[in-house]
Design brief:
The complex is a heterodimer of chains A (498) and B (245). Chain A has 498 residues and is of the alpha+beta class. Helices cover 29% and strands 30% of the residues of chain A. Among the domains of chain A are: 98 residues, Dna Ligase, domain 1; 86 residues, no CATH class. In chain A, helix 6 packs across helix 11, helix 10 crosses helix 11 and helix 12 runs antiparallel to helix 13. Chain B has a single domain, classed as Rossmann fold (3-Layer(aba) Sandwich). In chain B, 44% of the residues are buried. The chains are: A alpha+beta (498), B alpha/beta (245).
């Protein structure tokens, strides 16, 4: 059976996607631009803008001169490839082999697929109507070769379906650009008056190679089917999911444990092959009365250790209500991360200790929640509340050092509490202060240490911190917010020193 | 002479056996992790600070809670020196992580677990103590019953992890199965040469109970990441005059 290919051309891929996202842009002229050699160059044009004469590769300043009301958006890095990959994955409904054709198309190997839709005509029509329904402006064509399908989709004037072995005739009237040539070669061909493929296709190959290089010949051969072209199809991600139906409804904890363990073993086997580990996982039980019971776990570090994962689930098994029994169990790893044999280590610990600690924390998180566990890293801010930040993972290492040059109290109140003070001279530490209706006479004091608000983060008064000691030797961190004279200064207690 | 020597030796050996049966630090030199405590070490059996055991610390006021946690941090720093990590479990945490660096600990090696229920705090402390990958576990909570403390003690006997239980404002100072009970209060700092400022922090360390040891009281200054003992003869009168005046 001969090969058949479909080429799909998205005429305004990015622009159509923008309209899909923001329907209010439908009738407004807009362009999507990216910076190229210091200029803002148009990469996608909406249909209304195109009608006004704006084309691809124009500079934004020129476009604005033509159309002052033009809206300009910046292009996201790699957006096109992401979009096309998603569309290619969606196209797997039509054929198992779908490939991305950068920068604006898809290629489908549809050999032996069309009869399922009742012929090539309804098949192609279905593809076009379904993708157009999303709002994309597309052209599609079917032919024996990738090259011919590509050419007809972009430059074809007549029928989009080229009969088997009919590509030669179909290509004849098309311009040389339809052969996927470099712009330089196309320019040279046109300079010589070769405006369509017909005018040079029968020229001696030696002459063509000498003047235009190997590319022209190989593209011609690919379009005519004399050279094989290989597609690089997208491979959709298989969900990390395992199912286990049971013959009889399972009602006991023991039975559920057996099912869970069996599912974990098969899932972890696959994860081991793919060097991945579970971060989040759900275990679902489908009851015979239609109800779905579910328990979930999370780990602080990707794991594929059956015993460990089982232990995490084990605590939650009593939450499942079997009622009349479960007929199907599904284990679904919702978040999966790479695990390498040489895992990065926390600090300088041995691998064994890291694992033990990660498993301990998983156990804690499983019982009381992951939000209760925190680890802190230094942050480069003077403002005390901002001088440290939460670490995102257990493996994250500090990028700056912890400061030791400034006195900091070991206990800090979550919110500074107001105190009443007696101050002899402005900018001097107080003589005494009253906190929780108890009088503290200050014997020694250090300070002030002025800390200003970081204006780019927060507006507010600066703080003058003092470390003061009362007669009993207890040390407090107190501060005054604001200046004397200008503001009405307030005094607060913020912490307790060792 | 010979039989007499053997007799004392036998008694010493028996004492060691008893200590180990009671879950105390049965340590050779290899297990002597915390050093530099001078006179405090003398108060314990075998003349070494017991690690792999549970210490109980009691504070009654907010002002005392800070030096108590400071003392714990000071003890943790030698325990965590060999890249160890530590769990800090509490239900009302007020610790300011950057300040731990001033006590000689890398704050990013401390994992804080904040819980609301005292029951959960105890559960996490016990799980932490069972895991011999952690260097130490600090637990902050109000009440600790004898049974609960016994459970924790059994956990550390297996794993040899050191535990510190800081009880803030407990309703009663009930008997617990911990190896020692400490009370730390602050002392007025002394600056040299009439310089302004507050000077190094000074604490009054009271060892209220010590299993098979001698309770005592010491005055200590925390300077340059180590404990410095202040001679009792000089320090005591000063406090008394200050209190009188």
């Amino acid at each position: 059976m001969g090969k058949r290919f479909v080429s799909i051309w998205f005429r305004h891929l990015t622009a159509d996607w923008m309209i899909r996202r923001h329907p209010e842009l439908k009738d407004t002229p807009f362009v999507v631009v990216t910076s190229e050699r210091g200029r803002m160059v148009v990469k996608a044009v909406s249909a209304p803008a195109q009608d006004k004469g704006i084309a691809l590769e124009m500079v934004v300043a020129d476009c604005r001169a033509i159309l002052p009301e033009l809206q300009v958006f910046n292009e996201e890095q790699g957006k096109v490839e992401k979009l096309l990959t998603a569309l290619a994955e969606w196209c797997i409904r039509f054929t198992p082999v779908a490939a991305v054709d950068m920068p604006d198309g898809l290629l489908l190997d549809v050999s032996g697929c069309a009869h399922l839709w009742g012929g090539e005509q309804p098949y192609l029509k279905d593809i076009i109507t379904r993708i157009s329904a999303f709002g994309y402006h597309i052209r599609a064509a079917m032919a024996d070769t990738v090259g011919a399908a590509w050419a007809i989709a972009r430059y074809g004037m007549a029928s989009p379906i080229i009969e088997s072995r009919g590509q030669m005739d179909a290509l004849m009237p098309l311009p040389p650009a339809a052969l996927r040539l470099e712009p330089g070669i196309v320019q040279r061909l046109e300079k010589l008056g070769l405006y369509d493929i017909r005018s040079f296709i029968h020229m001696p190959r030696r002459a063509l190679r000498r003047r235009f290089g190997d590319q022209l010949l190989s593209r011609l051969d690919q379009a005519l089917g004399q050279e094989i072209e290989v597609l690089d199809p997208v491979v959709p991600l298989q969900p990390y999911q395992e199912r286990l139906p049971s013959l009889d409804p399972i009602r006991t904890a023991g039975g559920i444990e057996v099912a869970l363990r069996q599912l974990l073993v098969t899932l972890c086997l696959r994860l081991t092959k793919e060097e991945k580990g579970i971060r989040k996982c759900d275990f679902k039980g489908f009851r015979i009365d239609g109800n779905i019971q579910q328990i979930g776990i999370g780990t602080v570090r990707a794991s594929r250790n059956v015993a460990h994962l089982f232990k995490l689930f084990e605590i939650k098994i009593p939450q499942l209500e079997p009622a009349l029994g479960f007929e199907l169990f599904v284990l679904d790893a919702t978040t999966v991360e790479d695990v390498f044999a040489e895992q990065e280590t926390f600090w300088h610990h041995s691998e064994h200790n890291d694992l033990a600690i990660a498993e301990l924390l998983d156990k804690v998180a499983g019982k009381v929640g992951l939000h209760t566990i925190s680890r802190y890293l230094p942050d480069e801010h003077y403002w005390p509340e901002r001088s440290f930040r939460l670490a995102v993972s257990l493996a994250e290492k500090p990028v700056t050092t912890w400061r030791t040059d400034l006195p900091r109290p070991i206990h800090v109140l979550r919110d500074p509490e107001p105190i009443v003070v007696t101050v002899p001279i402005p900018d001097y530490p107080p003589m005494l202060f009253i906190y929780k209706s108890k009088l503290h006479n200050i014997t020694n004091a250090d300070g002030p240490e002025r800390i200003e608000q970081e204006w780019w983060l927060n507006e507010g008064l600066q703080r003058d911190y003092y470390c003061v000691e009362d007669e009993s030797g207890a040390r407090y961190w107190i501060f005054r917010a604001g200046h004397y004279g200008i503001d009405d200064p307030q005094w607060f207690i913020h912490g307790f020193f060792v | 002479m010979t039989p007499l020597l053997t007799k004392t030796d036998i008694i010493k050996q028996l004492q060691k056996v008893i200590i180990s049966m009671q879950g105390g630090a049965m340590s050779g030199n290899s297990q002597r992790l915390i050093t530099g405590l001078g006179p405090i070490e003398q108060a314990f059996p075998n003349r070494s600070f017991p690690t792999g055991a549970i210490h109980e610390l009691i504070s009654h006021t907010r002002e005392d809670a800070a030096p108590t946690n400071g003392f714990i941090a000071g003890l943790l720093s030698p325990l965590m020196r060999k890249d160890g990590i530590c769990l800090w479990v509490s239900n009302k945490r007020t610790i300011f992580p950057p300040a731990l660096k001033l006590m000689g600990i890398e704050p990013d090696k401390v994992i804080f677990i904040d819980l609301t229920k005292p029951k959960d705090v105890l559960w996490v402390i016990e799980e932490g103590l069972k895991c011999n990958a952690v260097a130490a576990v600090v637990g902050e909570l109000q009440e600790l019953s004898f049974t609960e403390s016994r459970r924790l003690q059994l956990a550390v006997e297996e794993s040899r992890v050191t535990g510190f239980i800081h009880r803030h404002q407990p309703r009663s100072e009930n008997a617990v199965a911990c190896v020692a009970r400490w009370k730390i209060t602050s002392l007025p700092g002394i600056t040299t040469g009439g310089l302004p400022g507050v000077g190094h922090p000074r604490w009054n360390i009271q060892l209220a109970k010590a299993r098979n040891g001698k309770p005592g009281m010491w005055q200590v200054e925390w300077a340059d990441n180590s404990f410095r003992f202040i001679s009792r003869n000089i320090a005591l009168p000063e406090i008394q005059t200050l209190k009188a005046g």
